[in-house]
Design a protein that fits this description.
Blueprint: E1 3-5, E2 23-28, E3 36-44, E4 47-59, E5 61-62, E6 65-66, E7 73-77, E8 84-92, E9 97-100, E10 103-107, E11 114-115, E12 118-122, E13 125-129, E14 136-137, E15 148-152, E16 160-170, E17 193-202, E18 207-215, E19 225-235, E20 259-268, E21 273-281, E22 305-308, E23 328-331
Parallel strand pairs: 10-12
Antiparallel strand pairs: 1-2, 2-7, 3-4, 3-8, 5-6, 8-9, 11-14, 12-13, 13-15, 16-17, 17-18, 19-20, 20-21, 22-23
């Protein structure tokens, strides 16, 4: 579609002698417009079937769009405002559709004469005149008028008027307290919940509330070891606990192939306990080894005894004299 700017539509203010007036139309063509015909026509006010096309121009679209895109163009006409109205349209050659172009007239004033597809601002909204081509109206724009359609409704901007945070202590972490909120953070007891409420007020009288909650923790209790106990047992498999336990490992009669278990129990001051197990296996005897090689023949051994009468071992004699007192003797 064509973009219009600084547009004037007829009928228009009578200048000079009040018989003829000039219409100056400024427009630009966007690059994405389809191939089509831009046309300015003058209609007879008394007979819409009487039309004179005093300006036409074809715009062709290529691979990059409309070649004349962005160029400032203008059309000047001099119809008789007493008997004529002006209509601006663009025909889409691809879709074989002719669409009128909106002519923006600015603010509507009392007694203003508007024609087909004139656009005016009135009471904060933009209104489109929908009288038939060639017709005009001086009716006030309104939703009840058959000559006007509200294009852009008026709106009221909404602003934040106030924002603040208040606090309160509660007993629940899921249900907000219903008491009085404070601007300062109150002291809370152990186990209680501190609630904060962020309130935002708006200019339209509405408000929003956002809650957050935290909990004051309670004092903890230190836990200590009150006792430990180590016991022993035996079983015949690594995945079978002993059926009985003893406090002294020497009381167990463990055989090769048995599993020796150790159980350590730790008791704590809060009544809890932990149990840990250790396990080992008593090895079994190995198979007998191969017989060793036969040894060499041995020699006959003899034992000789010698006697001495002093402790130094001197004067040894191999003859036993029973009348002597021997203090040393030896073998060789």
């Amino acid at each position: 579609m064509l973009c219009m700017s600084g547009t004037t539509s007829a009928p228009f203010t009578i200048e000079g002698n009040g018989v003829y007036d000039d219409v100056h139309i400024d427009y630009t063509v966007p690059a994405d417009a389809p191939t089509g015909l831009f046309k300015v026509s003058v209609y007879d006010t008394n007979d819409a079937n009487v039309r004179f096309d005093f300006y036409t121009r074809v715009y062709n679209k290529n691979n990059t769009g409309i070649a004349e895109a962005g160029q400032a163009c203008f059309v000047t006409a001099f119809p008789n405002p007493a008997v004529s109205t002006v209509n601006v349209s663009y025909s889409n050659a691809d879709a074989n559709v002719t669409a009128p172009i909106v002519c923006y007239r600015g603010d509507w004033t009392q007694g203003m004469v508007c024609g087909h597809y004139d656009s005016v601002d009135y009471q904060g909204s933009e209104w489109l005149c929908i009288v038939p081509i060639g017709d005009t109206t001086t009716a006030t724009p309104s939703s009840s008028s058959p000559y006007w359609r509200e294009r852009i409704k008026s709106g009221t901007s909404i602003t934040v008027t106030a924002s603040f945070v208040v606090y309160q202590v509660g007993n629940s972490g899921t249900t907000a307290p219903t008491g009085t909120w404070s601007n300062t953070v109150p002291a809370a007891q152990q186990g209680k919940f501190l609630w904060s409420k962020h309130v935002v007020n708006y200019s339209d009288g509405t408000h929003t509330e956002v809650f957050s909650v935290s909990r004051y923790g309670t004092d903890g209790t230190s836990v200590s070891i009150t006792s430990t106990a180590v016991n022993y047992g035996k079983s015949n498999a690594a995945d079978v606990l002993p059926s009985s336990w003893v406090g002294d490992v020497t009381q167990l009669h463990v055989l090769p192939g048995d599993y020796l278990w150790t159980r350590t129990v730790v008791n704590y001051s809060d009544g809890q306990s932990t149990t840990a197990y250790g396990i080992s296996r008593i090895g079994t005897d190995g198979t007998n080894g191969d017989p060793g090689a036969a040894g060499q023949n041995g020699q006959t051994t003899y034992v000789h005894i010698a006697y001495a009468t002093d402790t130094q071992g001197t004067n040894f004699s191999t003859t036993l004299d029973r009348t002597n007192f021997y203090k040393c003797w030896g073998t060789y």
